[in-house]
Amino acid sequence: TLLRQQAESLGVGINYGQIANNLPSPSRVAVLLRSLDVRKVKLYDADPNVLRAFAGTNVEFVVGIGNENVARMTNPSLALNWVQLNVHPYLPATLISCITVGNEVFSGNDTTLMANLVPAMQNIHSALTTLGLSDQVMVTTAHSLTVLSNSYPPSSGAFRQDLVGYIQPLLNFHAQTQSPFLINAYPYFAYKGSPDQVSLDYVLFQPNQGTVDPVSNLRYDNMLYAQIDAVYTALAAIGRPDLLVRISETGWPSKGDPDEAGATPENAEIYNGNLLKRIEMKQGTPLKPNIPLDTYVFALFNEDLKPGPTSERNYGLFHPDGTPVYNIGLNGVLPGYISSYGRKCQ
């Protein structure tokens, strides 16, 4: 039934990044994810090995077009070619429900890339329409929270003035195609930036007194929900109160450099464990209590080749050998390696 599909599709999603040289084969990853009952996976490309390995598994995929390919997608025939090559051959055996065009495009300073984004998305959507796939495959893009000029309190959420000219046409596209607005939201960054000012319990979904938004009078007991409501407020402020917000990435690193406060396995276990409980409760935010958060955790594996601070290589729930980095009650089996243990007592 549709209701069951909706309930299932609101399970936790996971980001499956592959910037590493030691990851298990996609067919083994398919077994691991099946054993975890994870039904939603987000890729950063359209890796044919992954899409083939997951044929017939009922796992729903988000595939990605990297920032380096956005400009080419402004050519309609290249966009059609991309969909014919990277999406069409795998359907319906592999469920592909969404294509992200670019990632955090508005966080850099490449204005050419920013200007190309919506035309590229329109061309990908047109290609899907041409192939009769636009009813089953959505087109969107993911943003970091830096697209907001203000996010606290949530009622003051607003888009950066220098981006509104780019964001308005994007939101028109979302409204026309009924696709969600994707946000990569990391309370960890706020904590790392000012560990003295930000309450660790508040960012980790632990019991705390919370904060009350002075304008909306809504009470927030965790930062993630406050960040999402700031996005909803920003959308409403430029005339799009009805768009759906989806969390395309959130997570917590289990290890970091000496100056990366809070990057520990204990905190990562608490953040992701509490997040999973909230997802299971199908909880909405204070501003949108009836819209359960659709969330993709970052990430499946630690990725040893990612550039940047140590934390960047340590967001995984699993080591490449299939053993869990910490215990959040996920029983997983990676063929060739067994990593299975009882759920924690609640």
TrEMBL record:
<keyword id="KW-0326">Glycosidase</keyword>
<dbReference type="GO" id="GO:0042973">
    <property type="term" value="F:glucan endo-1,3-beta-D-glucosidase activity"/>
</dbReference>
<keyword id="KW-0378">Hydrolase</keyword>
<dbReference type="InterPro" id="IPR000490">
    <property type="entry name" value="Glyco_hydro_17"/>
</dbReference>
<comment type="similarity">
    <text>Belongs to the glycosyl hydrolase 17 family.</text>
</comment>
<dbReference type="GO" id="GO:0005975">
    <property type="term" value="P:carbohydrate metabolic process"/>
</dbReference>
<protein>
    <recommendedName>
        <fullName>glucan endo-1,3-beta-D-glucosidase</fullName>
        <ecNumber>3.2.1.39</ecNumber>
    </recommendedName>
</protein>
<dbReference type="Pfam" id="PF00332">
    <property type="entry name" value="Glyco_hydro_17"/>
</dbReference>
<keyword id="KW-0732">Signal</keyword>
<dbReference type="InterPro" id="IPR017853">
    <property type="entry name" value="GH"/>
</dbReference>
<dbReference type="InterPro" id="IPR044965">
    <property type="entry name" value="Glyco_hydro_17_plant"/>
</dbReference>
